[in-house]
Amino acid sequence: NMIHSGRLASSIATAVAFQSIILYLQEFPPTEKRGTTSYMSDVVFSLFAFICMSLGTKELLGDRLPVLMTVQIGLCVLSCCLTLRLHESPKFLLININDESAARDSIRIFHGDKDDESIEAFIEELKKEGHEEIEHASSMKDVITIFTEPALRKTMLLGLAAVQMVVPMWTFLFNSTDLLLDMNASKFISQWTSSAMIVCYFIGSLLGGYLIDRVGRRTLFIPCSSIIVICVGAISLSFYLSHLV
């Protein structure tokens, strides 16, 4: 019961925390750096995924689950301690709390020793964003409009299609060990191939973070999504062919 309850509670907490950190990373940096900082969550995620997957191999801590869990608890405690030193985001303090003084302090913490002119410019930018968000605040009527307006409906369908192009790769990324074992690969190769995939994912996150504000979103998305579709198709074909041999 404790295991099941813990998994359920941690699933909810993970979803809330992950979305919170995404907003955090988008709200505290200067506008021109938001694309890069938004990528940082993926970079850190892939790094720790590699660490945990590597530790979970038989050669390291795969056969010693209590020790493996203890290591992860240590990493989580360290993350919590580091997070305690963080200040609330300037945008939240300014728009939601209406505390301009605290927002200025937050900007100084996150942006470094900025001059007053730069801080005031960022404050005005945040105020403008806040007013625009209030004017375009979402409601149930807005949700209905998405389905009734042809242009918005097309945009939503394109967005769903774009997400669907990326999501299938997660199946192979996190279940690659089981898939390779099912294809009669050795446990050693299966586990370390999965770790190698996470390394490639980490490299891709670094590369994407570097290019996102230089090349553009669409320019990166279309070629990479096409590669994903081709690779997923090839992997799926290999999986079925392996059972015919």
From TrEMBL:
Compartments, as annotated in UniProt: Membrane
Domain Major facilitator superfamily (MFS) profile, chain residue ranges per copy: 1-245
Record keyword Ribonucleoprotein present: no
One of the record's GO cellular component terms: membrane
Membrane-topology descriptor: Multi-pass membrane protein
Domain of life of the source: Eukaryota
Keyword Ribosomal protein: no
Segments passing through the bilayer: 156-174, 194-212, 219-241
Pfam entry (one): Sugar_tr
GO MF annotation list: hexose transmembrane transporter activity
Keywords for this protein: Membrane, Transmembrane, Transmembrane helix
Classification via Gene3D superfamilies: MFS general substrate transporter like domains
Protein name, as recorded: Major facilitator superfamily (MFS) profile domain-containing protein
Originating organism: Pristionchus fissidentatus
Species classification: Eukaryota, Metazoa, Ecdysozoa, Nematoda, Chromadorea
